[in-house]
Amino acid sequence: MKGIVLAGGSGTRLHPLTQAMSKQLMPVYDKPMVYYPLSVLMLAGIRDVLLITTPADMPLFQRLLGDGSQFGIHVDYAEQEQPNGLAEAFVIGAEFIGDDPVALVLGDNIFYGQGFSRILQDCVRDLDGCTLFGYPVRDPQRYGVGEVDAGGKLLSIVEKPSDPPSNKAITGLYFYDNAVVDIAKGLSPSARGELEITDVNMAYLREGRAHLTELGRGFAWLDTGTHDSLLEAGQFVQVLEHRQGVRIACLEEIALRMGYISAAECYELGARQQKSGYGEYVMDIARKAGA
Questions:
Q1: Which residues contact 95 (CB under 8 A, 6 or more apart)?
Q2: Cβ pair 250, 281 in contact under 8 A
Q3: Between 291 and which of 93, 116, 182, 267 could a Cys-Cys bridge form, CB atoms 3.0 to 4.6 Å apart?
Q4: Could you write out the three-class secondary structure of the chain?
Q5: Mind listing the pLDDT tens digit for each residue in 227-280?
Q6: CB of 176 closer than 8 Å to CB of 102
Q7: At 191, is the pLDDT very low, low, confident or very high (cuts 50, 70, 90)?
Q8: pLDDT digits over 17-62, tens only?
Q9: Alpha-carbon distance 151 to 162, whole Å?
Q10: Which cofactors are required for activity (predicted)?
Q11: b/e per residue, 247-279, with b = 16+ CB within 10 A?
């Protein structure tokens, strides 16, 4: 399976912060925002990643992540000149995707929960059509909402419903088989001039090939698109890391645990950042792994 991180857009809700830099490069406590969605793909076992961003921001992401080889993955880059909708990612990334299934994760979404890697890998293995991820929210009227039957089969998707059929918001993580490329290419732009991800999901729903995996109690899903939510996400990460003594979305640690890099390689990555607490943490987990 291939993976796409969509890190484009203008981040207008975070102005003036994002007038000088990409939203997905802004810090969420101790690491850049893009580390969090990239970690999701790595935990799913995905090692070929396309990062889609604006022409102006691409050099900054390339400086941060390079070709991904330090994490045992491969990162390619593509431009989205204008925010023309989430589904445009599959048109832009068609050549990258090739004949493979693909996962799309939004660059400003943060996921956390015990056993998340196993859930992701199970979804990759059992993919049949598309798999979306639902998260219970207090105010489903603000989101796209999914309704499922007892077996987890998706029955309907409603955008910002006044009378929600459930409290399960559709998150910014999507798994698709290869048909998604042709579906996206065949979409007509919405009234906003965008290729809508909901139209992609509805195509699978009409075929009876859409499924919803619920991320319930014990999971966290955070959207960092506003000043308040960005601050809250940083505070969430800070509290969890201080209490548990672990680092969320530490790419070096994930690469080590997944067998993408050796303990010695992990230690070297930490040593390059040894003056920070983050670098010290990476060196420590590498030592414990035998470096």
A1: none
A2: yes
A3: 267
A4: CEEEEECCCCCHHHCCHHHCCCHHHCEECCEECCHHHHHHHHHCCCCEEEEEECCCCHHHHHHHHCCCHHHCCEEEEEECCCCCCCCHHHHHCHHHHCCCCEEEEECCEEEEECCHHHHHHHHHHCCCCEEEEEEECCCHHHCEEEEECCCCEEEEEEECCCCCCCCEEEEEEEEECCHHHHHHHCCCCCCCCCCCHHHHHHHHHHCCCEEEEECCCCEEEEECCCHHHHHHHHHHHHHHHHHHCCCCCCHHHHHHHCCCCCHHHHHHHHHCCCCCHHHHHHHHHHHHCCC
A5: 999 999 999 999 999 999 999 999 999 999 999 999 999 999 999 999 999 999
A6: yes
A7: confident
A8: 888 888 999 999 999 999 999 999 999 999 999 999 999 999 999 9
A9: 26
A10: Mg(2+)
A11: bbbbbbbbbbbbebbbeebbbbbbeeeeeeebb
b/e string for 194-219 if b means 16 or more Cβ within 10 A?
bbbbbbbbebbbeeebbbbbbbeeeb
Using omega within 30 degrees of 0 as the cis cutoff, is the peptide bond preceding 32 cis? Answer: no
Please report, rounded to a whole number, the percentage of residues in the chain having pLDDT higher than 70. Answer: 100
- The identity of residue 186, as a single letter, is G
User: Which tokens in the block code for residue 291?
Assistant: 């470096």
* Token output for 14: 């975070």
What's the average model confidence in pLDDT over 175-195? 95
Structure-block tokens of residue 158: 């409603």
